Amino acid sequence: MHHSLRTLSSLLAILFLLAACTPAAPGTTAAPAEEERLRVVVSILPLANIVYNIGGDRIDLDAIMPPGTDPHTFEPRPSDAVKLAQADLIFVNGMHLDETTLRLAQANLKDGAELIELAAVVASPHELIYGIEHHHGHAEDDDHEDDEHGHPDADAHLYDYDQVLADDEAHDDDDDEHGHADEDDHDDDDAHGTAEVDDHEGEEGEPDPHLLLDPNFAIRYAKVIFVTLAEHDPDNRDYYESNFNEYTARLVALDEAIQAATATIPESNRRLLTYHDSFGYFAIRYGYTVIGAIQPNDTSQPSAKEVAALIDQLREEGVPAIFGSILFPADVIDQIASETGVTVSTLLDDGLPGGPDDPEHTYIGMMVQNMRTLATTLGGDPSLMDGVEVGNVPDSE
Description:
Blueprint: H1 2-21, E1 38-42, H2 45-55, E2 59-63, H3 78-86, E3 89-92, H4 99-108, E4 114-117, H5 118-122, H6 161-174, H7 184-187, H8 215-232, H9 237-263, E5 271-274, H10 280-286, E6 289-293, H11 304-317, E7 321-325, H12 331-340, E8 343-347, H13 363-378
Parallel strand pairs: 1-2, 1-3, 3-4, 5-6, 7-8
Helix pairs in contact: 1-3, 1-4, 2-8, 6-8, 8-9, 9-13, 11-12
């Protein structure tokens, strides 16, 4: 795969060089350049929606993965390489969730562009959940500190979340007219300190990349996105900041609504068995217990022995429901349900509800739908999610 990516990258470089050197046709003049917007490319749809809520129409935004795509197994197209090669900013989740997009971005990153792995930026090691098996088939490619195109290791594109906050606070001190809201009070509370997590050095497995299923991490993602857009496009900083402040308020309201709805679910029912192992951060934040996951890793189905063990566990513990995923359909869920009599419901983790023209086709819409499903299935009150604004900030201006 890497040989083909490098070949494509080389071809793109030649095409761009030829285009730059081609003179205008005789008797013609170049059209006046319109005001150029930042070209921003994002890997997965929930992340793209967060970027849109900050950048709005002041950026040109592209999402690499189409709806209904499993990011763990997605194979980019040649057209995706072109998009990435032309981008000024590239945001990926990282931590192996969107690995193929990350590798392609590294191979085609243009001079002056910035590539940011958000999960690695916003979370400290003690906040991460470990033990995930990824099986992407890239083990042989882990040593890629400097390929033949001179692209550095992915870590070269990472920066510290605390430094992001410090840099932005320094900007506020220098320019008081912006008056940034103190949006960090909410996500710096003990929300992520509820799990007793020791030093993870030597921990087995990779960190769980699904931080976005906790809205407090989404606030951190939005902060980094805002600061990055403002650094690259200072003329539109006020616009980005206004969107960020409003979006943060909506995420805070989302978090509070999820807490309220969860409180209506009997404690004995706050147990999750999901198809894909992605709700760990959600469970820590809102006080659920993750019983397990049906899928043993990102790319394979469970064995007959593993299915039998899950069925025994469900019977012993009296788990009321299991939760499948739209992106991971599996006959094994129906088998488990038929043998145990438990309810089957569907949750979203890497995709958005509805279609692109639907108001709920947003990150907040995804979280609201998930909480409604959980409350309905586990004996709570889903109506407590009705007041959450699911639409996009730029669309309401």
